[in-house]
Specification:
Blueprint lengths: L9 E5 L4 H8 L6 E5 L12 E4 L4 H10 L4 E5 L14 H14 L3 H14 L3 E2 L2 H4 L8 E2 L7 H19 L5 E5 L2 E5 L5 H8 L16 E4 L13 E2 L1 H9 L4 E5 L4 E2 L2 H11 L2 E5 L4
């Protein structure tokens, strides 16, 4: 259950994936207002007051939130960087373009900070998904019946280090290491397409259902705007890791979200895979 909030009504800007759906249903008793991002959010959010807006309609989103009585805002779900000509921008969105373009030269995280500042200047408190629903962010420990072997632990250490290094360069949040070899790193395509590429690798480089090895690690970037873009895993992540023959998944405590946690752990246990949450920096 969510903690007692310090705000009156939450606005939830819902992108793609299951994360915004889980948050909305967990917060149902507090009557959240949903802004579905056009082209990304597919759930109709039946039973909730909602509106659909383009990502470029900043003024329209703000007006809808204010009209609904929202004083707090949570961004949840994935939204890929769009083509500027497809943004359907309103006047306020157009004003934001020069700032966003300048920030874009510094990386995606800089763009996110520009977006957050715009909403904060309008009087909204921006809250991270893990603060709205604390159960999304796991603490350190082993969450599955299967534990990593010493060889797996070596892959975990290298995968976490690789993911952190990629994050330092604002490239991505994930890496896959198998028997000491970096098989894949995440860039603009996202985690799922990265995992899909692994299936095309020669069998001797990756594990199989009867001989699993290799680890997916996801960590936040050092400059991460944690209120809007924490690394996330869900059932789709598990399915792809299982298909790629990986032995398990490693996350960083307080630095990642697990959507539909019980189902994720159940699926990992059924496949004989592990989920290990390491202390930050270890």
């Amino acid at each position: 259950m969510p903690d007692q909030p310090h705000w009156t009504r939450l606005g939830l800007v819902a992108g793609g994936g299951d994360l915004p759906v889980e948050i909305a249903h967990a917060m149902a008793g507090m009557n959240p207002f949903i802004v579905r991002v056009k082209g990304f959010g597919t759930d109709p959010f039946e039973g909730f007051e909602s509106v659909e807006k383009s990502i470029g309609q900043i003024g329209g989103i703000l007006k809808a939130l204010k009209t609904a009585g929202c004083d707090a805002l949570c961004f949840a779900g994935y939204v890929t960087r769009p083509d500027i000509k497809d943004l359907q921008m309103d006047a306020r969105g157009l004003v934001l373009v020069p700032k966003a373009l300048a920030a874009g030269r510094k990386g995606d995280d800089a763009i996110l900070r520009v977006v957050i500042e715009e909403f904060e200047q309008a009087g909204l408190t921006v809250i991270g998904a893990n603060d709205v629903l604390k159960s999304l962010a796991p603490g350190a420990g082993l969450l599955t019946r299967t534990a990593p072997s010493p060889a797996d632990q070596a892959d975990i250490d290298k995968a976490l280090a690789t993911a952190r290094h990629m994050g330092e360069m604002d490239i991505g949040q994930a890496a896959v290491v198998a028997r000491g070899t970096v098989l894949a790193v995440e860039a603009q395509e996202g985690t799922n397409p990265m995992l899909d590429r692994l299936v095309e690798l020669p069998a001797h480089l990756r594990g199989q259902a009867d001989d699993r090895f290799g680890v997916l690690a996801k960590t936040p970037k050092p400059i991460q705007e944690r209120r809007i873009d924490l690394p996330t895993i869900g059932l789709e992540t598990v399915v792809r890791c299982e298909r790629a023959g990986l032995a398990g998944i490693a996350l960083e405590a307080g630095g990642a979200l697990i959507v539909n946690r019980e189902a994720v752990i159940e699926a990992l246990d059924a496949a004989g895979m592990f989920l290990l949450v390491s202390e930050a920096g270890q």
